[in-house]
Design a protein that fits this description.
Helix 2 crosses helix 4 (79-100), helix 10 (219-248) runs antiparallel to helix 11 and helix 11 (255-268) packs parallel to helix 13 (303-315). By secondary structure, this protein is mainly alpha-helical. The chain has a domain at 152-360. The longest helix has 30 residues, at 219-248. It contains 15 helices and no strands. 37% of the residues are buried. 63% of the residues lie in helices and 0% in strands.
């Protein structure tokens, strides 16, 4: 009987997401070409006439006009509508996974039984929803730019990183759980015995047991979590970029991919982005092989795979965390895994070089 009351929020969350998606369409169209987001207002690319506000309503505007300009009747891409729908579904999915399914194991109905039974999301819940929605919007905008332009604009990732760093001190682990209710993890043996570490926005603090100078819930702990996540996210892609490029004979990842992981790390911490990177390799390899076999091109957008890997890592953490916690807090094992991964990546680059033939210079091809 608890879940149906919470479902009343889903239509509003979807509308909010669709509205954000409408803004993301502007971001994707203008940021890569260094145009202002706010001036001029939305206009038709054929007749250059301003689009009236009621024609610009998310989803309904496209359906109402049947995908054509109200002035010149030229058709425009349905991509705008699909981005709005996708963003609405993503926001609704975040709400459902977090509060209806409690997939990360926060324990919302135990923490706030009265509010949740009445269908009232506590303010702590809205803060969690805000953090994940802001991250999702930035990941989606970066991925769309990477798909369309094969680049991830720095303004998107820098803005997202600043948001993550600004929010991290306010939502330090184990937020939204009260630090006083978290059992003390004082020794390595306590950590090994504990089946699951309490989940916050960042599923884990940057180290366990938590160092004495960084008490759970303190702004210092949150800020260090965000900074270390940002650094690890940026460094891992840059290292991988160099190793893969050495084996492949061409750049396999752009600097924008590093910036995307830097942004995700500022929100989620270094452990999640590290696992997210490894998870992103699988869809990345599949897309790369498909590009080579069907299109013959060696350039592919890796940003969407990285974004997907981080999201999957976050929401799979209740299952992934117990498997990797012994590794993450054991420096020697981490070093062995890192070296092995670098060797495998270099070998993959060499294999792709053999399958795809010699690298081509895109700038040398002539258009029609």
């Amino acid at each position: 009987m608890e879940i149906p009351w919470l479902c009343i929020w889903l239509p509003g969350v979807f509308v909010l997401g669709a509205s954000v998606g409408s803004f993301l369409n502007v971001v994707v169209a203008r940021i890569p070409t260094e145009r202002s987001l706010f001036w001029p207002s939305s206009y038709c690319l054929s007749c250059f006439q301003p689009i009236k506000w009621f024609h610009n309503l998310p989803i309904f505007g496209y359906i109402w006009l049947k995908g054509r300009c109200a002035n010149c009747h030229k058709s425009y891409s349905s991509r705008y509508m699909w981005v709005e729908i996708a963003t609405g579904l993503i926001f609704s999915g975040i709400f459902a996974l977090e509060f209806l399914c409690d997939i990360r194991g926060v324990g919302w109905f135990k923490l706030f039984p009265y509010e949740m039974q009445l269908g009232l999301v506590p303010w702590q819940g809205w803060v969690v929803f805000l953090v994940f929605s802001v991250l999702a919007a930035h990941l989606l905008a970066a991925s769309l730019c990477d798909i369309e332009f094969l680049e991830i604009p720095l303004p998107i990732t820098i803005t997202g990183t600043l948001f993550g760093l600004a929010l991290s001190p306010l939502t330090a682990w184990p937020f939204p759980i009260s630090p006083g209710t978290v059992p003390r993890i004082a020794t390595w043996e306590d950590l090994i015995r504990r089946a699951q570490i309490p989940a916050g926005i960042m599923p884990w603090p940057f180290w366990l047991p938590v160092p004495g100078n960084f008490s759970p819930g303190s702004w210092q702990l949150g800020l260090v979590d965000g900074i270390l996540g940002m650094i690890v996210g940026a460094l891992i892609c840059r290292i991988v970029r160099w190793v893969y490029s050495f084996g492949r004979g061409m750049e396999g990842m752009g600097v924008g991919d590093s910036d995307l992981m830097m942004m995700a790390g500022a929100f989620l911490g270094w452990q999640v982005v590290l696992v997210g990177f490894f998870l992103s390799v699988f869809p990345g390899i599949l897309v790369g092989l498909a590009q080579i076999l069907f299109k013959g091109t060696q350039t592919l957008p890796f940003g969407p795979s990285l974004a997907l890997g981080c999201v999957v890592s976050l929401y799979s953490w209740p299952w992934i965390g117990p498997l990797v916690k012994n590794l993450f807090f054991e420096p020697v094992l981490m070093g062995i895994l890192g070296i092995s991964s670098i060797l495998i990546l270099g070998a993959s680059g060499i294999i792709f070089r053999i399958l795809g033939g010699p690298p081509t210079d895109p700038s040398s091809s002539e258009g029609p």
